[in-house]
Amino acid sequence: MNGFLRSTLALSVSLAMAATAQANEFADMDPVTLRLAHVVNEQDGFHIAAMKFEELVEERTEGKVDIELYPNASLGDERTLLEGMQIGTVDMGVITNGPVANFLEEMAVFELPFLFPSPEAAYAVLDGEIGQELLDRLSEVNLKGLAYAERGFRNLTNSERPVEAPADIDGLRIRVMENPVYVDTFRELGANAVPMAWTEALTAMQQGTIDGQENPVNVIHSFKLFETQDHMTLSRHTYAPALFVMGMPVWNQLPEAAQSVIEQAAQEAAEHERRVNADMEAEQLAELREAGMEIVEEPDIAAFQEAVAPVYEQYGEQFGDYLPRIQEALK
């Protein structure tokens, strides 16, 4: 037998042994069902990530870990879901970074305005040493951080007027996430920043009690915000991660082999969602225009950056050495 055939045969044998070993790891495992919740609809990137995660976990555990999906805030808003994970009444979720930062405040460092120049820059930091360190630190608040999915670069919409510079925001009532960095960012821009849960924001926009909101293109599209919001600005003012996160009570009950599959599947599902979001954005913007939304594509970003400089002065020290480390990594 020549060397090539011998090495090919050896590789085939080793792959077969690895597959058998993985199957054997789950042969004696008692079946478990994990409920994965999120607050958005089935067209959203969160659900795309969740479905990919479900597929990977069920396949790789030979069906011993069954994932049940609960979209549309059916188990509660994001704070409620995280509190449920801490005490073991909710198993896991895909959760926007902002609410997670209410449990571990350093998480909010990622959402400082205009921090990341591109999605690729954000991924390098999140998937690298800094991001993984913060995922691990969630154990301090009884949560298990698995991977960074994506909410994406956030953009401003409103029902009143085109926004090309900070002066155009003055006095607008803008819904923001319940997170102090967002509140203070929009106050520095002159808005009346109104923190509220997303489920309440949808009603508030319909009733006209707020003028606008800020979210990535995929959210603006999937929730048909053109029905209440005539104007959109591609401000890309903040990159918002999202997290695959689990409660430590549930995580600690899983065998090591299942934990390993879940962590790897979360990372792969997160990367899958990022690719889908990138592919879909141009098409979504075209459909929003067709639906009548007026889109400002090139606002005065330098003016926005200057206006939010006080946010860095206010929060820089609060995040310890994370901000300078991120800035160094981005150079």
UniProtKB/TrEMBL annotation:
UniProt keyword Cytoplasm, yes or no: no
One GO term describing the cellular component: outer membrane-bounded periplasmic space
Keyword list, A-Z: Receptor, Signal
GO terms, biological process: transmembrane transport
Entry-linked PANTHER family: DICARBOXYLATE-BINDING PERIPLASMIC PROTEIN, PTHR33376
Protein name per the record: Tripartite ATP-independent transporter solute receptor, DctP family
Annotated GO MF terms: carbohydrate binding
Domain of life: Bacteria
Signal peptide per UniProt: 1-23
A Pfam family per the record: DctP
Organism of origin: Halomonas shengliensis
Entries under CDD domains matching the protein: PBP2_TRAP_SBP_like_5
